[in-house]
Specification:
This protein has 166 residues and is α+β, with helices and mostly antiparallel strands. The chain is 35% helix and 33% strand. Helix 2 runs antiparallel to helix 3 (141-158).
């Protein structure tokens, strides 16, 4: 993916990335332009005493002289350039092809979290139904037990660990 980025670690090629539309306005820069410079003469009373000193006046027009700075312009001003980058499993950004791969341990931790969520949503209600049927001596207890265990087996099959079972 091509984004504005700046390499912050030359060894790993980790990047700081600028997100957003590079053509979107970032801010307006006002560029004043001098329209007129002049002098307002000093003022004197009837006896020739100075009432008001001479003033140098500059009239500036700023309304018609604004420059739109885009997001891309801003990124370039802080040293970023467009480059192909990718986001790694740890949410950090890297030059494309340099993103580290997650360890087997990390991947298995993620699988374990996913399994836990699925057990809570899918298997645990079946277990509670089984426990209740068993406690009440109902005929459905054995079938509920089979449903519960099948649900757990299905989750394990759909979310296998990378290196054996945990």
């Amino acid at each position: 993916m091509k984004l504005y980025a700046k390499i912050i670690n030359e060894e790993t090629k980790e990047c700081s990335v600028g997100l957003g539309d590079p053509d979107a306005p970032f801010f307006e820069k006002v560029i004043p332009e001098v329209k007129h410079e002049g002098v307002i003469p000093a003022e004197y009373d009837e006896e020739g005493n100075l009432i008001k000193e001479e003033q140098i006046v500059t009239i500036v027009d700023v309304e018609e002289h604004t420059e739109i700075i885009t997001v891309g312009d801003y990124y370039e001003s802080i040293g970023m350039e467009e480059m192909d980058v990718e986001q790694a499993y740890n949410n950090q950004w890297y030059v494309e092809g340099y993103a580290p791969q997650p360890s087997v341990e990390y991947q298995n931790e993620q699988i374990s979290r996913q399994r836990k969520q699925r057990y809570e949503k899918e298997s645990d209600p079946l277990r509670l139904d089984y426990d209740e049927a068993l406690a009440r001596g109902e005929d459905t207890a054995e079938q509920l037990k089979q449903d519960w265990l099948a649900s757990k087996d299905k989750i394990r099959e759909e979310l296998p660990y990378i290196e054996g079972e945990k």
